[in-house]
Structure formats: C-alpha cells, structure tokens
Amino acid sequence: MLKFGVESTIVVFGSARTLPPDVAEKQLKKAETELEKNPQDEELQRQVRFAKTQLEESKYYQIAREFAGIVTTYDQNTTDGFQFVVCTGGGGGIMEAGNRGSADMGGISVGLNISLPFEQHANPYITEGLNFNLHYFSIRKMHFMKRAKALGCFPGGFGTMDELFEALTLVQTGIIQPIPILLFGREYWEKIINWDIFLERGYICEKDLKLFKYCESAWEGWNQIKQFYKI
Fold first, then answer.
1. pLDDT score, position 4
2. 2-19+59-229: CATH number
3. What is the pLDDT of residue 184?
C-alpha cells in the first residue's frame, strides 16, 4: 500500500451474495418465466420468492457503490489532509460494489481477499497492485482496522457479523480510537440484533449504543463521516 500512498481507508463490507440490481432483475424474470410453465411447482414458487428477496436486497449494492463513489470523489479533491481510500474484502456482492464505486470515479481502492475452501475470486474493480490475498481471517481483520477511519457495514451473514463485532469490541475496550461505524439498513440490523436485550441484561452499557449509527442512504453515511471528522 505504501507504493500507492494509502495511509487511511474507509472500509466497506457486507454480504458477498448481494446482487447488482440489473442481475437481480434478470434472475427474477427468469424464475417467473419458469414458474409460468408450471405454476403449481413448489420449488419454482420458492425460487420466485427468493429472487424477489434478492431484488429487494440489491438496493444495498447500489447504495454501497454510490457511497464508495462519494468517498472517492472527496479523496480525489481534498486539500484538508484527510485521506479516505475505499477498502473492501475484495470479493463479490457488497465488496464488489465498494470497489466498483471507486472505479466509477477513476479512483483507487483496496481489496483484502481471503483464501476459502469455496474459492473467493477477486472482483475486477480492485486497483491493480492493491489486491491482497490473505490466508487467515485474523490477519485480514487486523489490516481492515489498522488504517480504517470509518466502517460502512451493509447487511450480511456470519463474516459480516464477525467484522462488525470485532470493530465494536475494539472501540468499546479502547484498543482503538473511536471511528464512525455505519450500519446501512436499520430495519435489517434491528431484526438481526436485539441491542435492547444486551442492554437490559447488563451485557453492554447505554453508551455502547452510541458506538454505531444507522444510515439509509449513501449521502447519509457520508454526512456522518463529515460530521465526525468536522470536514
């Protein structure tokens, strides 16, 4: 990263399975076409329902792409000493959207790929020379946090939760300085995680609920970062 002068980053992460809107639309149309041929088929009905869900979730791909584009545009034009280079896990879905948003604006972005039993391929939007293939999740998470000035966290599965709670723990315990931790899609997060139960049972403190902010749009996320750093 030194070769490219990358000293600080905005990390974007979320599900590797989130589809771009155009791809999700095509999959739904294909599923609906198959169902029309055999309307009583329960498996085809399930596939249509799932395709509709994927299309709904694809909005997060678009938001992540736009968010990364906004960050990159700022980084290209800043004169106040702040550097925000987009960094992702290097794979598909939300990670692809982050790198793609930077590429849209002609900027650079980082991909921290991981070797998995089910092989993860690097997305094509990572800047050449800034795609790193790591073997251990612990090392990968260390590099995510080492330069992070903010986290943009989108809906995802176990890996997303791992990265989110690692960040929350590091800030909560004072291991790292506070940074904006942005949770995109409040409805999703409040369904997945019952923060109030943590609080009611004494597992966290009231102030811990201020470690993160909810966002619904790319600009809302960016404005949270601007407000935090007073830029």
1. 80
2. 3.40.50.450
3. 99
